[in-house]
């Protein structure tokens, strides 16, 4: 992502944001991706709004 | 009446009100006097509703006098975090941007407390937009810990905690997205209860991260926590995430009996990096519970190692979705730390966010399986001693760590997974309370309260209170 697309982000934050993101990547989940494809986990679903009974 | 009226619990004072031995007006005046005296040093309140509170108190007194006693909160002065809407009153969210915001409706939790007859003393200080754990607020002042004014009261519900700990209010409402009720409860020696996600309506609570947000009470006793929870919980059709399930009243059912109770201890995540002295106190508490009849079971929840990543991605993404429109026009009006946190939420991709939601489900499944074998999990609330005001880093066992990340570590899973969790004191370290966290299965507030009551019965604080506020 190019942070320059977002003028509301301060230029002064760039370095700190890079450091933060790099740190967060070191904590990135190391989950077995096949587990995330299990049907009840893969489908994060929001139910449609039904008329109230 | 005695001059120690302010030190009574809700449970104790409600008996006196019901018996007409103490008047709600007397209680409210007493609380208002204490706020006037102590708030300048604590910065616990952003707004004090003196006239309205006395009017409410007079009304409660008349009603009780006529024999219409509504219940244990009737006539009891309490405080509300300033991100819960009050009709016709300013709700600031601790911010400059919302400094003049007036809602035209009450938050559902406020409505329910109003119906229960509680007296509203005012709105409490908080970390700006609830986005931090220190309550060092650039616009409404640095909130301070009554046990030691050089230390943080925790956050983001720091004002609510300081108000209750210094005996300015009998109880308070807070909100909790990444520990914002439990961290201040730990820092200030209180019982802070984040209920199951959806148990208490969030309607009228300004959102931080809507899939992680919870509203709950801060009190001085477990029984008081149950009383407040009973008053504010229940289905609310105005909140699409509200749980439409049975909502048993618990205040009359809380028991310290540990017969048959299985307490889980998970070492790899919750005790991974904890101050040695804090750890010693938490383990000693667990051992005392074992001696009182609880069974202690070691459990493993390997997926918790991914909880920090999932919580951080979800929290920052949702927070930035809430604030991005304001960031475009008024970015300069956020405090420096909060603005940076909102900027962090621009970084995760849509895929990161959705995988974090999937991970949440994965961890939920694993934890749910573990709760088939145990009643509650116990852990230190804060892995470190309560930090000093202005400390960006804390020291744990000689190693410097980020204060905010440390505060969030053990309380975060409760938000990520929506589990009911209490923090309560388990002793004093260098004169400051240390918190122990009790986490229950989704929907099982009862077991959490019972184990909380059992810990309370150990009298680990030995009646210690913040010395300058007795």
Descriptive notes:
- The complex is a heterodimer of chains A (53) and B (470).
- With 53 residues, chain A is mainly α.
- Helix content of chain A is 40%, strand content 0%.
- Chain A contains three helices and no strands.
- Chain A has helices at residues 14-26, 33-36, 39-42.
- The model of chain A has no long low-confidence stretch (mean pLDDT 81).
- By secondary structure, chain B is of the alpha/beta class.
- Chain B has helices at 10-18, 24-42, 50-65, 108-115, 158-165, 182-188, 222-232, 276-291, 307-330, 336-344, 350-370, 403-409, 412-417, 445-456; strands spanning 45-48, 77-81, 119-124, 136-137, 141-142, 171-176, 191-194, 214-219, 262-266, 295-299, 376-380, 393-396, 399-402, 421-429, 432-440.
- Chain B has an eleven-stranded mixed beta sheet, sandwiched between helices. Chain B has a two-stranded antiparallel ribbon with strand order 4-5. In chain B, strands 12-13 form a two-stranded antiparallel sheet.
- In chain B, helix 5 (158-165) packs parallel to helix 6 (182-188).
- Chain B is globular, with a radius of gyration of 20 Å.
- The mean pLDDT of chain B is 96.
- The chains are: A mainly alpha (53), B alpha/beta (470).
């Amino acid at each position: 992502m190019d942070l320059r697309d977002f003028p509301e982000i301060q230029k002064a934050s760039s370095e700190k944001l890079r450091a933060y993101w790099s740190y967060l990547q070191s904590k990135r989940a190391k989950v077995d991706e096949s587990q995330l494809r299990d049907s009840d986990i893969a489908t994060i679903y929001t139910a449609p709004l039904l008329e109230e009974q | 009446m005695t001059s120690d009226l302010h030190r009574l619990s809700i449970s104790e004072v409600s008996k006196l009100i019901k018996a007409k031995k103490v008047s709600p007006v007397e209680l409210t005046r007493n609380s208002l006097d204490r706020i006037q005296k102590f708030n300048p040093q604590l910065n616990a309140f952003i707004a004090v509703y003196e006239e309205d509170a006395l009017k409410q108190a007079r009304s409660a007194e008349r009603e009780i006098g006529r024999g219409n006693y509504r219940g244990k909160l009737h006539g009891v002065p309490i405080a509300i975090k300033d991100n819960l809407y009050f009709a016709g009153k300013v709700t600031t969210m601790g911010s400059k941007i919302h400094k003049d915001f007036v809602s035209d409706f009450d938050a559902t939790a406020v409505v329910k407390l109003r119906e229960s007859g509680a007296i509203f003393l005012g709105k409490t200080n908080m970390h700006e937009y609830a986005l931090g754990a220190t309550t060092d607020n650039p616009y409404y002042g640095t909130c301070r810990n009554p046990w030691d004014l050089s230390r943080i009261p925790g956050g983001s519900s720091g004002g609510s905690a300081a108000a209750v700990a210094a005996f300015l209010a009998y109880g308070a409402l807070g909100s909790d997205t990444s520990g914002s009720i439990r961290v201040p409860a730990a820092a200030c020696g209180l019982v802070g209860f984040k209920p199951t996600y959806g148990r208490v309506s969030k309607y009228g609570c300004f959102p931080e991260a809507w899939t992680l947000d919870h509203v709950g009470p801060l009190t001085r006793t477990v029984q008081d926590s149950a009383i407040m929870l009973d008053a504010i919980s229940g289905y609310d059709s105005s909140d699409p995430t509200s749980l439409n399930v049975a909502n048993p009243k618990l205040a009359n059912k809380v028991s310290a009996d540990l017969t048959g109770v299985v307490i889980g201890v998970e070492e790899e995540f919750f005790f991974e990096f904890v101050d040695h002295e804090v750890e010693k106190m938490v383990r000693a508490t667990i051992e005392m519970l074992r001696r009182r009849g609880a069974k202690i079971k070691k459990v493993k929840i390997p997926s918790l190692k991914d909880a920090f990543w999932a919580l951080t991605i979800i929290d920052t993404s949702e927070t930035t979705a809430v604030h991005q429109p304001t960031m475009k026009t008024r970015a300069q009006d956020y405090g420096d730390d909060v603005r940076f946190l909102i900027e962090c939420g621009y970084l995760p991709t849509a895929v990161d966010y959705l995988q974090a939601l999937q991970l949440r489900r994965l961890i939920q499944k694993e934890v749910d399986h573990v709760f088939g074998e145990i009643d509650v999990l116990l852990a230190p609330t804060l892995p470190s001693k309560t930090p000093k005001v202005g400390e960006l880093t804390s020291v744990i066992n000689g190693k410097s760590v980020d204060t905010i990340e440390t505060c969030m570590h053990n309380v975060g899973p409760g938000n990520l997974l929506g589990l009911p969790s209490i923090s309560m004191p388990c002793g004093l370290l260098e004169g400051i309370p240390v918190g122990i966290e009790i986490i229950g299965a989704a929907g099982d507030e009862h077991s959490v309260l019972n184990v909380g009551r059992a810990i309370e019965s150990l009298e680990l604080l030995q009646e210690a209170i913040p010395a300058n506020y007795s």
